[in-house]
Specification:
Number of strands: 6
Structural class: alpha/beta
Number of helices: 7
Radius of gyration: 21 Å
Amino acid sequence: MSISTQFGEAQQWAQTHFGAVALGDVRRSRRVVTLAAGWARQPGASIPQLSQGQAYASKAAYQLLGQAQATPEALQAPHRQLVSQQLQAPGTFLLVEDTTELSWPEAAERRAGLGPVGPGKATSQGVLLHSLVAAAWPATDPDPAAKRPAWPLLGLLDQQFHVRQPVPEAEKAHPHGGSRPRQGRPRESALWASSLRAVGRPPAGTRWVVVADGGADVYEPLQQCPA
């Protein structure tokens, strides 16, 4: 399976999906559109790369992202709404869900807002980024003998940041086996069900197919996927 991330003309796509972002100042909204168009053209590029060496443009982008109003939810809101609207049309859509670890360099002391990640959790630090994206299933099944075409990616439906907390000593395994109950720490497995609850249920005549790995193989996410 392959999913196409070709969105067409980048500036037009960015204006459609992010032009309505509400950050209290029209100049901030324009800057968001500029950044979105740049990343549509160059996925993974840094802000200085998008700014093409213009120090003012880089500074303006960092100032924008440093604003209290510029939360991920606020920045993504118009885009998510458009994607959600597309999922109301008749047909079949894939809802692809997974978690990515964003890590920072190891340090002796934990940075504020970061938690243990990766195999070396004692010193590695970062956050978990849980994303749910939507893709369109073709209206007609392709020829099984031919190469499957790429399915168009619609965009992001939900995204959560989760900071893993170190396991308290009281929760660690007893010397004689077994473990103590969790003491108020949120379960990472709850991210999967939370994303599915956020998008709701498909309308009549529309089918949503959830695509996930073993991380979603627990009761709560399955409960959100009625047959």
